[in-house]
Amino acid sequence: MNAEPSRVTAQNPPSRRELPNDHRAALKETAREFVRREVAPYLQDWEDAGSIPREVHLAAAKQGLLGVAFPEEVGGQGGDLLDSVAMQEAFFEAGASSGLMAALFTGGIALPHMVSDWATNGSPDLVDRFVRPTLAGEMIGSLAVTEPGGGSDVAGILTTARREGDEYVVNGAKTFITSGVRADFVTTAVRTDGPGHAGISLLVVEKGAPGFAVDRALAKMGWHCSDTAELSFVDVRVPAGNLVGDENSGFVQIAEQFVVERIGLAVHAYGIAARSLALTADYVRHRETFGKPLIANQVVRHRLVEMHRQVEVARTYTRSVAARHGEGENMIAEACLAKQTAVDCATYVCDQAVQLHGGTGYLHGTEVERHYRDARILPIGGGANDVLADLAAKLLGYSS
Ligand SMILES: Cc1cc2nc3c(=O)[nH]c(=O)nc-3n(C[C@H](O)[C@H](O)[C@H](O)COP(=O)(O)OP(=O)(O)OC[C@H]3O[C@@H](n4cnc5c(N)ncnc54)[C@H](O)[C@@H]3O)c2cc1C
Questions:
Q1: Who contacts 89 (Cβ-Cβ below 8 Å, separation ≥6)?
Q2: Whose Cα sits closest to atom 24 in ligand 1?
Q3: I want to staple 296 with a disulfide (CB 3.0 to 4.6 A). Which of 50, 77, 292, 360 is the partner?
């Protein structure tokens, strides 16, 4: 006879049952403890303030959590993408939000191009000036691709960088930039040649450079603790040494890193969905209507199972895409599919979590309400659903 399965609760979320190995189990426990001690008690204050304090970056770095998937030689912990996935899952299990992850781990999108360049060309300068201090929690970096004229069409960016001697002169504007209000440096997509994807480069622009300004901190539906900026560049002089990789290689660099970014956003999606499910499983056991707990209704139990099913599918598929990426397979199309699968899961599960919490679920400060609002950015950021479907269609051979 099968043993009685342990109950799913916020303290015993379903994902906890499968731990790939001891090393990851220890990493997950460190991450959960960090969130319980250093994040959860203050998260609502940071949501209200519109950003997280710099000290949180230092505290996370001290626990070895900021650079988990970065090589030790550049200041990271030397782990792989699956370690990072495991750590992020643990953050969500313990009550972190998608906005918190976006704000705390912006280095995950601002730095990898510099690390790739270091691995290929061996130039330590950008690593020493930006990568190490960011992974140590001492600096904050952003990635600026999107412009007021559009974000989906990366090849259409208009911000220019004109070479003059040992400098580039940058002119243009960026918007929706995560951590852009607090950033000490911004890895910026600029046009260094003619139109289209072949004329794009990546250039690190530093805070304080004359002509570089944060024009506005943007107020948003969700991700409240993650500051989001509109940036302007007017004749900003940037040392040519701040170029990341070769001139005009920016589009390829951005596209390569999108795979990891999209896997990361898939983890956000099923992470907040799993947490919302666990909180809802607790709630429906205690909330009574018509003289019995909500969970005594078959329709409620079926709803929980459907939420569970969607989380399991999204998590299993995303982990497998991450593992195959780590083994060197080309996962560009599959990363799009993983993100879409997980985003659909979050859209359904977070909505049902609010529904089953009733009026409580609609109140500001209830955790499921935060996840519901945070989920809405996920089908837009890092590649909108329709744009990713188009890319997948091309890569999978579904073209006319
Ligand atoms: C909170 C937040 C944080 C962000 N952080 C960053 C950041 O750190 N760095 C950065 O560079 N950007 C960032 N972005 C920008 C984000 O990546 C873009 O919003 C996204 O790429 C979509 O671009 P857009 O908003 O200009 O929409 P548009 O490109 O104008 O598209 C609008 C909508 O049209 C649809 N659509 C677009 N193209 C097609 C098509 N070909 N076929 C069918 N439908 C289509 C999609 O549904 C899309 O959502 C952030 C955005 C937000 C809201």
A1: 15, 28, 267, 271, 274, 315
A2: 151
A3: 292
